[in-house]
Amino acid sequence: MEKEEEIIKICKLIAVHQKNLYAIEEILATYGVDRPIHLLNSLTFEQEEIKRLQARLDA
Question: CA within 20 to 30 Å of 59's CA: 1, 11, 44, 52, which one?
Fold first, then answer.
């Protein structure tokens, strides 16, 4: 895969994970202190994936 194609693919993946992150944040905002653990885990996963993909872009 060419470098340019890989960059485009990574950018698309980052956009998908950002949309997921925003959706999870909106859902969590409706909860008080007692937030479901699966949502917190999903939030952490999306944040880590964005960081991982961003690191691939920066490399």
Answer: 44
